[in-house]
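Renewal narrative, Specific Aim 1. Our central claim is that a sequence can be written position by position from structural information alone. The example that follows is taken directly from our test logs and has not been curated for this report. It begins with the structure tokens describing the chain, in the order in which they were read.
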């Protein structure tokens, strides 16, 4: 039996990992952002490098040291991240979208700081537009170009009246068309900004792997364990 990390089972493979959270600027000093710290994505990059992969880490607004052995590409907005991921995806054996990518961005970005007036007024409501879905584009490009590539998505879900965390995860996996979806339950201090994580890895083939609560590094090892059997020989 192989002990985790003992075998360089990603040797000769190139992987692209996106991590962190994108920022959509409103003006030169303000943005719409999210709570992703980048810790899970960085752990994925670090573990992939330790297992022998050439790693391109597309990092959105993360305050963590560069993982050993990874090439780090820094981005700010969803559009920046999209360009970087699509640039590096064609040569990659695996693309892992661990970043929290903005779904909406302001239609207009003010070129000067939005100022208060003396009359106590507020600015107009912020009009938003949709961003591109990077994961969906990677899946579409893979099909269009006949790439043999493993594509992994992440989803932070809460249960609600329309379904459980897993119901939403299964629906999202089908909608996105990726091979694996790593689902974690958020809310109550879970997942964000913490060092541990508990996930379920859903496979397009119907597989379901529960990864017990552990460090983000342990979760990263489990995700790569699920990716390796899907790689082309
Ligand atoms: N994702 C992406 N581009 C976007 C939004 C999300 O590539 N514009 C990726 C994320 O990196 C993640 C996966 O899609 O791997 C799922 O993200 P999530 O926000 O859970 O899904 P959405 O399709 O945006 O659905 P919603 O936020 O409405 O749940
Ligand atoms: Ca989203």
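The sequence written for that structure reads:
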């Amino acid at each position: 039996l192989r002990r985790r990390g003992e075998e360089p089972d990603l040797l000769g493979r190139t992987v692209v990992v996106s991590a962190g959270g994108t920022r959509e600027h409103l003006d030169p000093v303000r943005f719409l952002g999210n709570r992703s710290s980048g810790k899970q994505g960085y752990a994925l990059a670090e573990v992939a490098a330790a297992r022998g992969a050439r790693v391109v880490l597309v990092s959105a607004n993360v305050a963590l040291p560069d993982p050993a052995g990874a090439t780090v590409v820094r981005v700010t907005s969803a559009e920046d991240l999209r360009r970087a991921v699509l640039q590096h995806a064609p040569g990659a054996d695996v693309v892992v979208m661990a970043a929290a990518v903005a779904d909406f961005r302001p239609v207009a970005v003010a070129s000067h700081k939005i100022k208060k007036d003396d009359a106590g007024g507020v600015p107009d409501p912020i009009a938003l537009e949709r961003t591109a879905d990077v994961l969906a584009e990677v899946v579409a490009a893979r099909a269009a170009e006949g790439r043999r590539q493993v594509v992994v998505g992440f989803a932070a879900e809460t249960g609600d009246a329309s379904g459980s965390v897993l119901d939403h995860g299964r629906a999202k996996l089908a909608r996105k068309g990726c091979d694996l979806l790593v689902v974690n339950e958020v809310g109550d201090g879970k997942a964000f900004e913490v060092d541990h994580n508990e996930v379920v890895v859903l496979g397009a083939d119907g597989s379901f792997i529960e990864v017990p609560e552990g460090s983000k590094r342990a979760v990263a090892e489990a995700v790569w364990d699920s990716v390796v059997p899907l790689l082309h020989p």
